[in-house]
Structure formats: structure tokens, C-alpha cells
Amino acid sequence: MPCLAHTLQLTLKDAIKHPNADVLISRARKLVHAVRKSSVANEAIIKKCGKTLVRDCSTRWNSTLDMLRRLLEIRTELNQVLEELGMDTLLTSDWAKIENLVKLLDPFAIHTDQLQGDSQSLSHVVPCLLNLEAHLLTTTAAGKQLAQVLLKSLQERFAAILSPDFPHFDATPAAACLLDPSVSLILQTPDMVPLRRAAQSLVETLATQYNPATAPQAVTATQNAVDSPPTVLQKYRFLASRMEVNVSLTNQPDGTDSLLTEMKKYVDDIKQSVFNETPLQFWRSKEAVYPKLAPVALDLVSAPASQAFVERIFSVCGLLSSGLRNRTTTSLEQRVFLKINKKLLID
């Protein structure tokens, strides 16, 4: 399974290369270049608002988003300076298009940061992707064409995670989502039946490996109406607004030792409870209640959402040990620790 954060970045690059976005970003980039090149204009903007324009980097799509955000943030001061210096600014229509583009891309930036965090579980991959899909489906006419390009790219690049019929489908992220009590309800909706069944099948296979005596049995489902989205899912606001029905497991075989009985009890529990603990804390405290399910769940929710954080550590180690800072006497371990935790130390 490829790095999910990198795959999401490729999805965004597909959209940014679209003519509608490419022309707009090129205009914004030229304006930023002209202002940054002029020391007079740059200093005047800093005096007015204490900030300057941000250049983007071709290898990082979120730097382009940062550039557009800063343009919108200091738009008034920027236009005043450009008018005073007789320099050209963007058209009113271009400013409106930038606003729409930023609104379209903002959720992608949020979920990219979420997926590449060092403490993010694999269980949040499916909710993030489904939330982005719901966001694109509800995009207004202003950004509809670009949203459709993004949606097509998202569905194609993540078919191996979201589409059980895909030849190279991997149910691991869906199984992790199913066994994370904070997001499991996402898979209990009618449109998630194929993905949920694939996740349950993988969980049964893994549980059989842990407990050879466990035999998979048939599962049926019934629909129970829900008045509003569960509070625990409000962080996925686009997805939560679409949730209307939860699906519960019924007609399970008797016997408290059955894996499917444990699964039914688990689904019932997550519908009726509010969780203030992490998935790991939940399953460690429930090992006696779910003796067959808990070992599988602990393995799945312990897996990271992506390899991005590990790659970042290797990158920092390479930079710090390359000889560029050969006068530094502290150990490599301490330097990497300080670099990776810079935000926490500053806060």
C-alpha cells in the first residue's frame, strides 16, 4: 500500500494542473513575484500589515495554497500599495476565483496534515477520504468543474482503499476504521455495506489466525433510523451531514465466545456510548470483554496512517548529518528531537 499522504498530494496536483486552476495560479504567482522583487512594494506592505507575500514551491501543493491564503489575507493592504506605486493587481473576478479555490482546497490541507501526523492511526484514512469525497460532492457551482476533476482523481487513486471491487483492493484501512470506536459508525451506513463487509471479512480472517478455533459465520444486517449524525463524527462535517441510517448486525449465532457475537456487541456499544479515550485505551480496557476481537483491533489501530512522518525524520537526519552543520557539538538524536518537536517547543 503506497504512502497515503503522498497519494493525496498527487490527487491535488492533478487538480492544480487543470487549465482553470493553472491559469489562475500563474497569475497569482506572477503578482507575488513582482511584489517580492520590488523592495519598495515589499517594505510598504510589511509596514501596512506586518506581513509579506508567500512564494510557493512546485514540489509542495500546500505551499501554493499558503500563497493564495496570504494573498487573500492581505488583499486590502496589497491593493492599496499597488495602487500607490502604479503596479497592476488581479482582476476582481480573479480574486473571487481565488476565494473559491481556497475553499475547495482547505479540507485537503487539513486532512493531509492529519494523515501525515506522527500519532494518527490508520483507522482515520477511510473517514478522511470519505469526508473529502462528500465535500467535493457538495461543492457549489462556482468550483464545480474543478471539484469534479478532484473527485475523479480521488476515486481513481484511492480505489484500492474505497472500492472492494477493485482488483488490488486492500481492506486493511477499512478494517482499522471498523475497529476504531471513534469513527466506526462511518461504516454503518447503507452506502458503506460493501466496504463494511470487506472489513468484517478481513477482521474474521485475522481473528482466525489469532484464534484458530474461531470459524467465520454468515452475517445479516438491518437498518435502524438515526435522527442526526453522531457527535463523535462532527470533525468530518461533510461526511456527517450525509449520515442518516446506521446498520446493526443481527441474527448472530448464540454463544458468548463467538467472534460475530463480540462484533455485534461492539457495534451496539459504539452506538450507545460516548468515547473520551483513544482507540488503544478503549481496546486495552476491553480485552476481557472482547477476547477474540481485541488482539486484532490493537494491531490495526496501532498502525500509522502514512509513512510521511518517518520519511520526514530520515530527511532531517540526512540534513543534520551531511556535514552542513559540522560545528554543532550536540548529538544527532537531540537535534532531530528538537527539529521534529519545534512547534511544541515554540508553543
TrEMBL record:
<protein>
    <submittedName>
        <fullName>Zinc finger BED domain-containing protein 1-like</fullName>
    </submittedName>
</protein>
<dbReference type="InterPro" id="IPR012337">
    <property type="entry name" value="RNaseH-like_sf"/>
</dbReference>
<dbReference type="InterPro" id="IPR052035">
    <property type="entry name" value="ZnF_BED_domain_contain"/>
</dbReference>
<dbReference type="InterPro" id="IPR008906">
    <property type="entry name" value="HATC_C_dom"/>
</dbReference>
<feature type="domain" description="HAT C-terminal dimerisation">
    <location>
        <begin position="275"/>
        <end position="328"/>
    </location>
</feature>
<dbReference type="Pfam" id="PF05699">
    <property type="entry name" value="Dimer_Tnp_hAT"/>
</dbReference>
<dbReference type="GO" id="GO:0046983">
    <property type="term" value="F:protein dimerization activity"/>
</dbReference>
